[in-house]
Design brief:
The chain has 433 residues and is an alpha+beta fold. It has 2 domains: 90 residues, Nucleic acid-binding proteins (OB fold (Dihydrolipoamide Acetyltransferase, E2P)); 259 residues, 2-Layer Sandwich (BirA Bifunctional Protein, domain 2). Helix content is 28%, strand content 27%. It contains 12 helices and 18 strands. The strands form 4 sheets. It has an 8-stranded mixed sheet, with helices on both faces. The chain is elongated and about 90 Å long. Bound molecules: adenosine-5'-triphosphate and aspartyl-adenosine-5'-monophosphate. The site of aspartyl-adenosine-5'-monophosphate (AMO) has 23 residues, from strand 11, strand 17, strand 18 and helix 12.
């Protein structure tokens, strides 16, 4: 194949080969246009029927939409062309012809429902505005990684096949591991904690988690991506500072480096959250929720926050905020309680007005208290011996948290459904593609 030039780089006066997809063919009689699309944009290829080689014109004009072709020819300035330039083809090669009938219209002129789009994700992702979501997702992950590196964290990868549940043994996908029962991991929680006691001290992971939740909601997935952070020698307040810093770094990077993508998604006022995020205690949160009068039933201390409650508070606060000091009984065993008040935990959640984005907290690092916590949650500490025993050999005080990447992208871009933020979502109904 001749060396390929991106359509966006084709300048008047150049002789180039471009390659991509047939976006559209418009035959106007004596003159016809083929619009070729590649990752960088589109270019108009002009066919003048009376002046050009008949086979060439025939090839160019009979090719089905979305076929893959390459075109070699001269680039000329042309004001009437959509991008101000057009190509006069010397040769056209059809690299792979597409079927005449497509299951989905990549030009987006014909709307498709989400299910059809997900069944045909390859075609769906030929739409610029769909691509934009994944460019932004990639930029968020880049920014987050840079941010973590700037504060001295080491990226780790922990096992996804495990012997025990990490979040308490429920909602696990069982698998068979050489004849033994095993599970898909729900969270890197216990592994990342083990790493703060290693010489690494401060770690992060970006990876998949698996939850056999029966939910079928616009904000739950059965396979999601989590950004986990854990650090030795910090408390829950400092962990919240890092959590807030990570979110702002992600938003700033998108605002700065994804202007084209934001345009495609229709944002002219993309805002980076600024100012310190309010930190409400759980008690303050339920008082405020009750005071909105939005709920049918008043919340009482100890209740988990329903979706309606989260919404009511989100509307009231109007931006990102933390909920701290959760009742110990609704937070997992690995979260530490206040010394002077064992019914209150040092766990926190970061909330977007629409939903929870992060859970985290100061961890229980004292062996005795940790084992007690397992028992209180009805878990057999012996099953978790690989984890608990390390707390006997020098485990520093530590804290951490985890974001769900898809929820971060969903709330950042105002997407209606979390599945829009995943290439190939796994949900109750969907196991392929
Ligand atoms: P030209 O003199 O530029 O070759 P034409 O008058 O010979 O144009 P027509 O077949 O009359 O060509 O054009 C049909 C339509 O296509 C007209 O509306 C014309 O404005 C438009 N058109 C012609 N050339 C271009 C071009 N290079 N890019 C976009 N539109 C064009
Ligand atoms: P938690 O279970 O709250 O905490 O998960 C952390 C964040 O991950 C996202 N998330 C999900 N996103 C989509 N679909 C799901 N099914 C799903 N489940 C979770 C949410 C949630 O806030 N080990 C702790 C974290 C920690 O303490 O460090 C944990 O897993 O955005």
């Amino acid at each position: 194949m001749d060396e390929r030039t991106y359509t966006a780089d084709a300048e008047p006066g150049d002789h180039v080969t471009v390659a991509g997809w047939v976006h559209e063919v418009r035959d106007l009689g004596g003159i016809a246009f083929l619009i070729l699309r590649d990752k960088s944009g589109k270019i108009q290829v002009k066919f003048e029927k009376d002046e050009m080689d008949e086979d060439l014109v025939e090839t160019g004009l009979n090719v089905h939409r979305e076929s893959v072709i390459s075109v070699t020819g001269e680039v000329e300035a042309e004001d009437r062309a959509p991008t101000g330039v057009e190509m006069l083809p010397g040769s056209v090669e059809v690299l792979n012809e597409a079927d005449a009938e497509l299951p989905l219209d990549p030009s987006g002129k014909v709307d498709a429902d989400l299910s059809t789009r997900l069944d045909n994700r390859t075609l769906d992702l030929r739409k610029k505005e769909v691509q934009a979501i994944f460019e932004i997702r990639a930029e968020v992950l880049r920014a987050v990684r840079d941010y973590f590196r700037s504060i001295g964290s080491t990226e780790i990868n922990t096992p996804k096949i495990v012997a025990t549940g990490t979040e308490g043994g429920t909602e696990l996908f069982p698998i068979t591991y050489f004849g033994e029962e095993a599970f898909m991991n729900q969270s890197p929680q216990l592994f990342k904690q083990l790493m703060v006691g290693s010489g690494l001290e401060r770690v992060f992971e970006v990876g998949p988690i698996f939850r056999a939740e029966e939910h079928n909601t616009p904000r739950h997935l059965n396979e999601a991506t989590m950004i986990d952070f854990e650090s030795a020698f910090i408390d829950h307040e400092e962990a919240m500072d890092v959590c807030e810093g990570t979110l702002k770094a992600a938003y700033e990077a998108v605002a700065e480096n994804c202007t084209e993508e934001l345009d495609l998604l229709g944002y002219d006022d993309f805002e980076t959250p600024d100012g310190d995020f309010p930190r409400l205690t759980y008690e303050e949160a339920i008082e405020r929720i009750n005071a909105t009068g939005e709920l049918d039933e008043q919340l009482v201390y100890g209740d988990d926050l329903s979706t309606e409650a989260e919404r009511a508070l989100g509307d009231d606060v109007g931006g990102h905020y933390f909920i701290t000091d959760w009742p110990s009984e609704i937070k997992p065993f690995y979260i530490q309680d206040y010394e002077d008040d064992p019914t209150t935990s040092k766990g926190f959640d970061l909330m977007h007005p629409r939903m929870e984005l992060v859970s985290g907290g100061q961890r229980e690092h004292r062996y005795g208290a940790l084992v007690e916590g397992f028992e209180q949650q009805g878990l057999d500490p012996e099953q978790f011996d690989y984890y608990t025993k390390m707390f006997k050999y020098g485990m520093p005080p530590h804290a951490g948290w985890a974001y769900g990447v898809e929820r971060l992208i969903m709330t950042m871009l105002g997407l209606e459904n979390i599945r829009e933020a995943v290439l190939f979502p796994r949900d109750r109904q969907r196991l392929s593609p």
